[in-house]
Amino acid sequence: MASLIPLSFSAISQCSERRAVVSSPRNLASNSEWFRLRTSFSCHFVGFRASNSTSRMIINCMSSTTDSPTVADTKLNFLKAYKRPIPSVYNSVLQELLVQQHLIKYKKSYRYDPIFALGFVTVYDQLMDGYPSDDDREAIFQAYIKALNEDPEKYRADSQKLEEWARAQSSSSLVEFSSKEGEVEEILKDISERAANGNFSYSRFFAVGLFRLLELSNATEPTILEKLCTALNINKRSVDRDLDVYRNLLSKLVQAKELLKEYVAREKKKREERTGPTANEAVTKCLGDYQYARQ
Question: Please, which residues have CB within 8 angstroms of residue 212's CB and are 6 or more apart in sequence?
């Protein structure tokens, strides 16, 4: 079998990091490989507050820990929701994206926004392009989003809404959202305000969402992305870096899918070569027995 190299979308890290090795739980390929992800960890502290009274001391214990699910919980939810095997060329990337999105989702600063949803949907649709079954592709999407305790229908609906809006925009109207009224314009204004106040959680899916808006509005001028990032109070250097990662991912996906097609074609040819003579011999023998019986 041709060697299919697991692809990496690069995990997000923002504080102290360590490397964790994660393997794809379901691989059809015999040469499944392990890939490395960077994950972020933060410490939780327990604070004590003491107050004196005439007869006793009251100690209030406050913990910053939450009951957020673990990465293992999220992966298990996905496996429970979609139990069929997934080809390794797709599954390796899916599992890495799921880990990344779990880390994003359960950050304290996380807040769902439609551009993030558009970015994820864009990445997912590009990744799963050419998947053998349309029904399975949608079922995997549903299982993936539900594993994160979010609404897959909302992801699709918000993405479609933004795509329709972007198609009706020009380069200038796209970056002048602050002076306009409308549902999408209000979403962009809210993101800009939160980013200015340091309350916005940037991610690579958000960067891909911005890129998709530019693509649909035919904003090809190099300066438009810079103007849009400025209007949104987003660091353009981070966006440029993450878009490079996205383009590199797409390029590797194309190569991996071509390898998969070549492998499937070779295996099909081998099966035909193995079964061909056997089938012919069976037909010849059957005809011979029939002619002998007639004599």
Answer: 118, 119, 122, 162, 163, 166
Which segment of 11-15, 108-112, 133-137, 196-200 scores lowest on mean pLDDT? 11-15
Q: How far apart are CA 214 and CA 212, in angstroms?
A: 5
CA distance 124 to 126: 5
Residue 38: what are its φ and ψ, rounded to 5°? -100, 130
**Beta-bridge partner residues of 35:** 22
Q: Write the secondary structure of the chain as one string of H (helix), E (strand) and C (coil).
A: CCCCCCCCCCCCCCCCEEEEEECCCCCCCCCCCCEEEEEECCCCCEEEEEEECCCCEEEEEEECCCCCCCHHHHHHHHHHHCCCCCCHHHHHHHHHHHHHHHHHHCCCCCCCCHHHHHHHHHHHHHHCCCCCCHHHHHHHHHHHHHHCCCCHHHHHHHHHHHHHHHHCCCHHHHHCHHHCCCHHHHHHHHHHHHHHCCCCCCCHHHHHHHHHHHHHCCCCCHHHHHHHHHHHCCCHHHHHHHHHHHHHHHHHHHHHHHHHHHHHHHHHHHHHHHHHHHHHHHHHHHHHHHHHHHC
- Token reading at 140: 């995997």
Mean pLDDT score, 133-161: 96
Instruction: Please give the pLDDT value at position 67.
Output: 77
pLDDT band per the 50, 70, 90 thresholds, residue 249: confident
Given a cut of 50, whether residue 30 has pLDDT beyond it is no
234: left (phi over 0), alpha (psi -120 to 50) or beta: beta
